[in-house]
Amino acid sequence: SALKLIDSSDSVASWKKNDPVPYSALCKTFDEIEATTKRGISDKIFPHGFASLAKIVVTICPEYEGKELGIGDSILMKAVANATGRSISNIKSDCDKVGDLGTVAEVSKKKQMTFGVGKILTVDKVFATLKEISGISGSSSQAKKIERINSLLVNCKGSETKFLIRSLEGKLRIGLAEKTVLVAISHASIISNIECKAWSKEKLERELESGTAILKQVLEKKKLTFHPYSELPNYDIIIPALAEHGIKKLHEICKLTPGIPLKPMLAHPTKSLTEVLDRFENINFICEFKYDGERAQIHQLEDGTINIYSRNSENLSVKYPDIMQMLPDVIAPGVTSFVLDCEAVAWDIKKKCILPFQVLSTRKRKDVAVEDIQVAVCVYVFDILYLNGKSLITETLRSRKESLKKSFFEQEGKFTFAKALEASSVDEIQTFLDESVAGNCEGLMVKTMDDGSTYEPSIRSKNWLKVKKDYLTGIGDTLDLVVIGGYFGKGKRTGWYGGFLLACYDDDSETYQSICKVATGLTEENLKQFYELFEPYKIDVPPSYYQFSDVPNIRPDVWFKPVQVWEVKAADLSISPVHHAGKGLCDPSKGISLRFPRFIRVREDKGPEQATNAEQVATMYRAQNLNSASGNVLEDDF
Ligand code: ATP
């Protein structure tokens, strides 16, 4: 009965709740998704049941578990060579031509003589093995991984091989944005409800619509009291809860939980203090120093376990043993569990002052021993989201601040409440901004205090505005861009890359869109370091998910895999005849590019998919003064 599913993908009624889903059914769906460029394909994604299917599409392990599935090419090539009887060098050379190891593996497997029919892979089996592989570490881990991969590969047929390899690489690359997956999960949860078999077509459509509406609220970032995925970004918990309780009850079950990092609230850039005052006219707001360090979400569970997570939900506890050691001293009696939103900032113990971000970035990330720490940190706490078993995110910022002050003690140079001022005039805010900059901070965060001041996980909220010190000279904010190519250097830069092609990320199409070349702001030290860093990530062919103009002035000498994010400052943005960032959003056929881009720093805390997205680029373009020359089409720099 399981196999019947492959050929009955349009029939909701034939699905039976406990049927094992064959992996081939999932891969057939992936093939269809890959072949379509249409939006709104969510109904196709999980036609039969959904629990294990959804998991396999979106993630193998949440980031905070620290188990990544991004298996390196060398291991995968060895596994493909083993499973297909081809040499590694042949596989590598095919891969250089085709640009996708998954496709090479599929073709290689098809050419191979096979004996017998092999086992039928089920989604559950594949998922369990992938999860097992992600957890393998320690001695002879490479051999163990290859052995587990081979146990699947020998039984793969057709496109199963391609998708298995891509899953192992950590990315399916079928043009399926995570938000489409969320809508599909909601539909699947309704369809897989056994009662729905008795529903009329109209009733089913109504239910699908209402399920989608609930998830759409999340997606459209409306003000909500319900954000299961943002509050509890773990599909291993959300999907079984959906299966058991249905979408309408999800918010009662999937709530902020200490030990599971939530997606942090983000701020809107502003270009002037008057813009801040216009936005917050007649609204109570607070200005806080914008500390320039690393975001740190600190969780304490009821059993006393403490964990620190990055902006990216990565577990930072091993990076900051000094914070872990200090925390018990600042927690007031009676406090049993909490979640704090903070910035960890480099601190000069002798001079008792904040040090710039560059100093913090010299700290080791792994295996840090308290005795060896050269750069001390001070935690500046600006929000509390959970206290003693209760989520505080729907309370006002004023009330959260009160809870914070009652529950923690300050300790100079170790744990301090973010410096704040309830200001009302431009002059007062300007003085506070100057003070923050003089104290090695980046500027101010301005936040609503009462009305509309709930904590909005994952949302870039208009209730949090950021004012950076150089907003007057630039475009209000820096951009975080992905390095996708390099240009060989000339003159003094011979032997290294002299410039780089950068891209923003478009999360709708899951593509990287070229935005500018950058060659300034890079020191000799940087150039040397980047030349070595990108060496293992060179690729011969740009992947299909890079969007760029294939013209001599743009095509880089070397393409790179999308592995690193750089913070870049620019004079302004312009409509570009050659770059693809936000193509179609501000001009029907042209993209947007940066003028006079300048490298600022590497963003270790952001993955490529958290780079500035196409919509943000378009918003920045629209926000800039349209009377300036930047509204015109200009030649790109460099
Ligand atoms: P974005 O997340 O908006 O793309 P980003 O990660 O580059 O941008 P910034 O533009 O620097 O971040 O602004 C938000 C960051 O500022 C927060 O993620 C946090 O790390 C930091 N920050 C420092 N001080 C505060 C504060 N008082 N309140 C909130 N965030 C603060």
Overview of this protein structure:
By secondary structure, the chain is of the alpha+beta class. It is built from 21 helices and 22 strands. The strands form 4 sheets. Strands 13, 14, 15, 16, 17, 18, 19 and 22 form an 8-stranded mixed beta sheet that branches. Strands 3, 4, 5, 6, 7, 8 and 9 form a 7-stranded mixed beta sheet that branches. Strands 1-12-11-2-10 form a 5-stranded mixed beta sheet. Strand 3 and strand 4 form a beta hairpin. Helix 4 crosses helix 8 (141-153) and helix 10 (178-191) packs antiparallel against helix 11 (201-219). The longest helix has 19 residues, at 201-219. The chain is globular. The termini are far apart. The model is unreliable at 1-15, 47-52, 218-226 and 626-638 (pLDDT under 50). The structure holds adenosine-5'-triphosphate.
Give the helix/strand layout:
Layout: H1 23-35, H2 42-45, H3 51-58, H4 73-84, H5 88-98, H6 101-111, H7 123-134, H8 141-153, H9 159-169, H10 178-191, H11 201-219, H12 228-231, H13 235-245, H14 250-253, E1 266-269, H15 273-279, E2 285-290, E3 294-300, E4 306-309, H16 321-326, E5 338-348, E6 353-354, H17 357-360, E7 376-387, E8 390-391, H18 397-407, E9 415-417, E10 420-421, H19 426-438, E11 443-448, E12 460-468, E13 479-488, E14 497-506, E15 511-518, H20 524-534, E16 538-539, E17 546-547, E18 558-560, E19 565-569, E20 572-576, E21 591-595, E22 598-602, H21 614-623
Parallel strand pairs: 1-12, 7-9, 15-17
Antiparallel strand pairs: 2-10, 2-11, 3-4, 3-5, 5-6, 5-7, 7-8, 11-12, 13-14, 13-18, 13-19, 14-15, 16-18, 19-22, 20-21
The chain binds adenosine-5'-triphosphate.
Catalytic activity: ATP + (deoxyribonucleotide)n-3'-hydroxyl + 5'-phospho-(deoxyribonucleotide)m = (deoxyribonucleotide)n+m + AMP + diphosphate
GO biological process, one term: Okazaki fragment processing involved in mitotic DNA replication
Enzyme class: ligase
